[in-house]
From TrEMBL:
The organism of origin for this protein: Lutimaribacter saemankumensis
Gene: purK
The protein's name: N5-carboxyaminoimidazole ribonucleotide synthase
Keyword terms: ATP-binding, Ligase, Nucleotide-binding, Purine biosynthesis
InterPro entries: ATP-grasp, ATP-grasp_carboxylate-amine, ATP_grasp_subdomain_1, PreATP-grasp_dom_sf, PurK, PurK_C, PurT/PurK_preATP-grasp, Rudment_hybrid_motif
GO cellular component entries: cytosol
Entry's family note: Belongs to the PurK/PurT family.
Molecular-function GO terms, alphabetical: 5-(carboxyamino)imidazole ribonucleotide synthase activity; ATP binding; metal ion binding; phosphoribosylaminoimidazole carboxylase activity
Residues reported in the UniProt entry to bind ATP: 100, 140, 145-151, 175-178, 183, 206, 259-260
EC annotation from Swiss-Prot or TrEMBL: 6.3.4.18
Length: 351
């Protein structure tokens, strides 16, 4: 049987690995950390750094296709891997999404609405950008940000000095603050044959920059739902994408605005594990393995709640709830802000 190589051994890598095993694949995870969620459920673990060229070559030769659970894979590692095995999703999706400027340029180049934005490297750039975009606004590092890290809110121009200091010299992007009513995301998949399938959009609530809950169905009109799915499909087609992508959207009276894209399975897609016959993890494995995409029709209403930090202490109670599907990541130590697991509370959809 074939072996799926997964770069990254966090919870996303773990759940990809479980899905792959269920389809009869072997899995091989590449992860510098030792005792990681992905390694617990994979057949092989390459415990090596991304600058270890021999390990990267050995990993690539041990697998049939390379996929990943995070977008910040060093370019030098990808250069080595791609000479040996296909990388899915491909390089273009990584190039575009590794930098918030490239990503915004790509999205606006497709004619999609984004927040107004400008590149900011210096305090002078920031003054100019605030002059054009106004406040409130958010200054974000262009690279490596997640869970709201590397972001500074600028409520008035007086906040600029602190915001640029918060970037610690890293290249940044200023985004105008979008006055949204709520946030939704589309988990979309595209196969090697170019077929596209989207899961029902989910409605996302964040707390302190971290996703707390995703609820399906989202509050969207039929027209908004159509817009959301069509714009996601355009993004995937434009990248000749293979695999699952998360597309985060702001809902505004003027229409949908794209916040960001993630070229991988996405936290806001975890509800699919208990809401669909084929979940986002299986869908991703199907796509990267060249299988036909599965049926992502939603059979249930679901509220996904992330278990973050101390939330893990509530597991004994949650385990007694009816219709609650627990997914725990097996992380040894619990830290504030750390994603320890999630629970999908399910209500069968009325016919
Ligand atoms: P993730 O963990 O989703 O990758 P991230 O660190 O990349 O998060 P963003 O998604 O850019 O960060 O921002 C986190 C949250 O901050 C958004 O979901 C949204 O609630 C808010 N936010 C970000 N950018 C804007 C904006 N331009 N206008 C209004 N709110 C915003
Ligand atoms: Mg992000
Ligand atoms: Mg986000």
């Amino acid at each position: 049987g074939a072996t799926i190589g997964i770069l990254g051994g966090g919870q996303l890598g773990r759940m990809l690995s479980v899905a792959a095993s269920r389809l009869g694949f072997k899995t091989c995870v590449f992860e510098p950390g030792g005792d990681c969620p992905g390694s617990h459920v994979s057949n092989y673990h390459f415990k090596a750094d991304y600058d270890d060229e021999d390990a990267l070559r050995a990993f690539a030769k041990a697998v049939d296709v390379v996929t990943y659970e995070f977008e910040n894979i060093p370019t030098s590692a990808l250069d080595i891997l791609e000479t040996i095995r296909p990388i899915r999703p491909g390089r273009e999706a990584l190039r575009v999404s590794q930098d918030r400027m490239t990503e915004k340029d790509f999205l606006s180049g497709l004619g999609l609405a984004t927040a107004p934005y400008a590149a900011v490297d210096t305090a002078d750039d920031l003054t100019g950008a605030i002059g054009r975009i106004g406040t409130p606004a958010i200054l974000k590092t262009r690279r490596f940000g997640y869970d709201g890290k590397g972001q500074a809110r600028i409520m008035t121009p007086a906040d600029a000095e602190q915001a640029i200091a918060d970037m610690a010299g890293a290249p940044a992007i200023l985004e105008g603050f979008v006055d949204f009513s709520h946030e939704v995301s589309v988990i979309a998949a595209r196969g090697t044959d170019g077929a596209v399938a989207c899961f029902d959009p989910g409605e996302n609530v964040h707390r302190e920059g971290i996703l707390r809950t995703t609820t399906v169905p989202a509050r969207l009109t039929a027209a908004q739902r159509t817009d959301a799915v069509l714009l996601a499909a355009r993004i995937l087609n434009a990248l000749d994408y293979v695999g699952v992508m998360g597309v985060e959207l702001f809902v505004t009276p003027g229409g949908l605005i794209v916040n960001e894209i993630a070229p991988r399975v996405h936290n806001s897609g975890h509800w699919t594990q208990n809401g669909c016959a084929v979940d986002q993890f299986e869908q991703h494995i199907r796509a990267v393995a060249g299988w036909p995409l599965g049926d992502g029709t939603r059979h249930s209403d679901v509220i996904m709640e992330n278990l973050i930090g101390d939330d893990i202490d509530r597991v004994p109670q949650i385990a007694r709830e009816p219709h609650a599907a627990l997914h725990l990541y097996g992380k040894a130590d619990c830290k504030p802000g750390r994603k320890m697991g999630h629970v999908n509370r399910v209500k069968p959809r009325e016919a």
